[in-house]
């Protein structure tokens, strides 16, 4: 079975990106995995601290492992936005393929120090684990927002990305390049989009020389996604779009029969909606 590191090298070579999608339940997990299998593409399942608390850190690992074993398909698990070193240790022990240590809210020097420590801790437990670090603030909640968080307007400097990559030893760098977590209300209908600084992505890639992740992908213009991937993004995160699709699906499932109480008859509508978003996004991230 291919490792996440191999899948990343392969994506880099082919100028495509691995899609990363967050889950809180089995309907979304199955939808993501089925969409990836239909397209024959590797995929990353993300669970943030909140999502892990709900599903269970070890349960999420067991679910992904069992799907991977059953399908013999490259499905990987990332501990998304992990804010403490204790939790880095916990997910490395649970067998995660990747951990994102997120010190982006800390002062730069402190983020550097703690990210370096996160790399040491994670790799001492699980040498093959992929460790990601984040510089530059891109907002913190995958939710519907009324306005753009002001701190997210400052973009990562190529020079600080180089220093961060060199001194921490992370495998993957997540920069701020016009991306942002969550969706602005006017982005839901598709009348507004996020726009990325593609030249900056290229400059950071060159300076850092690492794999790179684009966070907060929801609501980004299609052509910006494609250009960002060509410029060096290897992983693209989509969460809010999936949450919206899931919610719409659940509402549809409930409306279809107000007397229905069997979850497995209500939730297929959520599965369908999530499946469609993932299939569209994966197709876009892998267009040549
Ligand atoms: Zn993120």
Which helices and strands appear, and what pairs or packs with what?
Elements: H1 4-14, E1 18-22, H2 26-39, E2 43-47, H3 49-55, H4 57-71, E3 75-82, H5 85-93, E4 98-101, H6 108-125, E5 130-134, E6 144-145, H7 158-168, E7 172-174, E8 183-184, H8 185-188, H9 198-208, E9 211-214, H10 222-230, E10 235-238, H11 240-256, H12 263-266, H13 268-285
Helix pairs in contact: 2-13, 5-6, 7-9, 11-13
Task: Walk me through what this model shows.
By secondary structure, the protein is of the alpha/beta class. The chain has helices spanning 4-14, 26-39, 49-55, 57-71, 85-93, 108-125, 158-168, 185-188, 198-208, 222-230, 240-256, 263-266, 268-285; strands spanning 18-22, 43-47, 75-82, 98-101, 130-134, 144-145, 172-174, 183-184, 211-214, 235-238. The model has no long low-confidence stretch (mean pLDDT 94).
Work out the radius of gyration.
18 Å
Distance between the termini: 25 Å
Integer average pLDDT: 94
Rough outline = globular
- Count of distinct strands: 10
Low-confidence stretches: none
Number of helices: 13
Main beta sheet strand tally, sense and closure? 8 strands, parallel, barrel
Helicity, as a percent range: 40-55%
Q: Determine the structural class based on helices, strands and strand pairing.
A: alpha/beta
């Amino acid at each position: 079975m291919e490792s996440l590191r191999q899948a990343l090298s392969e994506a880099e070579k082919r100028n495509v990106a691995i899609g990363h999608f967050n889950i809180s339940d089995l309907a979304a997990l199955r939808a993501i995995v089925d969409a990836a299998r239909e397209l024959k593409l590797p995929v990353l399942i993300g669970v943030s601290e909140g999502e892990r608390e709900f599903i269970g850190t070890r349960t999420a690992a067991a679910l992904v492992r069992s799907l991977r074993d059953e399908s013999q398909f490259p499905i990987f698990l990332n501990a998304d936005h992990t804010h403490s070193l204790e939790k880095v240790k916990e997910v490395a022990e649970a067998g995660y393929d990747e951990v994102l240590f997120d010190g982006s809210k800390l002062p730069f020097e402190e983020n550097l120090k703690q990210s370096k420590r996160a790399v040491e801790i994670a790799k001492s437990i699980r040498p093959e684990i992929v460790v990601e670090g984040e510089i530059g603030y891109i907002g913190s909640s995958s939710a519907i927002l009324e306005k753009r968080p002001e701190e997210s307007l400052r973009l990562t400097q190529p020079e600080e990305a180089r220093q961060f990559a060199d001194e921490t030893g992370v495998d993957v760098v997540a920069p701020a390049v016009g991306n942002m977590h969550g969706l602005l209300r006017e982005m839901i209908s598709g009348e507004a989009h996020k726009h990325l600084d593609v030249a900056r992505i290229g400059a950071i890639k060159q300076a850092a020389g690492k794999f790179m992740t684009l966070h907060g992908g929801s609501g980004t213009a299609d052509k910006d996604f494609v250009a960002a991937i060509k410029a060096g993004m290897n992983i693209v995160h989509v969460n809010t779009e999936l949450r919206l699709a899931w919610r719409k699906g659940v509402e549809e499932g409930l409306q279809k029969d107000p007397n229905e109480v069997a979850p497995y008859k209500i939730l297929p509508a959520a599965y369908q909606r999530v499946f469609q978003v993932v299939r569209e996004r994966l197709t876009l991230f892998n267009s040549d």
